[in-house]
Amino acid sequence: MTLRKDAMEILRVFNNNVVLAKGGDGGEVILTGRGLGFQAKPGQTVDESKVVRTFVPSDGRDPDHLAQMLADIPPEIIRVVVESMQEAGLGERETGSTTLGMGLSDHVASAGERVMRGSTSRCRTARPPRLPCIWSTPASPPATCPIRIR
Which of 19, 39, 61, 128 gives 146 a disulfide partner, CB atoms 3.0 to 4.6 angstroms apart? Predict the structure, then answer.
């Protein structure tokens, strides 16, 4: 199989929605999108119509580690975090920052997991307000939790 010069090649599949790929410039990128990794194999060309977000590892960070971390975060959390960053008025530099976006998404996902387990606060002195939870879907009534990004 011969790749187009600008085509991206799959290097590793993490799950149905996250793959590590070699970009057109030869650098490694982490790609997300529904079904992007479904039945995909290393060496295949990326179906770019399924790519929703592209994360570029920076600061010498290990792309495999970042991609695995990203694969463990629900896509809805990443979407809400990125949208919230934009709504908050952060510039393109910040909203496009892989480190900031993934760090915030991981933090929100971890906080959500603690809430679902019943551990609502790690702080013993302050009691956070109870707000509608971002894990609610249109099909279910809003749950309450002490954390919300908006």
Answer: 128
Pairing between β-strand 28-32 and β-strand 18-22 as defined by DSSP bridges: antiparallel
CB neighbour list of residue 32: distance below 8 Å, 6 or more residues apart: 17, 18, 51, 52, 53, 55, 70, 75, 78
Contact 44, 3 (CB under 8 A): no
Q: What angle do CA 47, 41, 30 make, to 5 degrees?
A: 60
Per-residue pLDDT of the chain (150 residues; tens, 9 = 90+): 444 557 899 999 999 999 999 988 888 999 999 999 999 999 999 999 999 888 888 767 788 888 888 888 888 898 889 889 988 998 888 888 888 888 899 999 988 888 888 775 555 444 554 444 544 444 444 444 444 444
Backbone φ, ψ for residue 84 (5° rounding): -65, -40
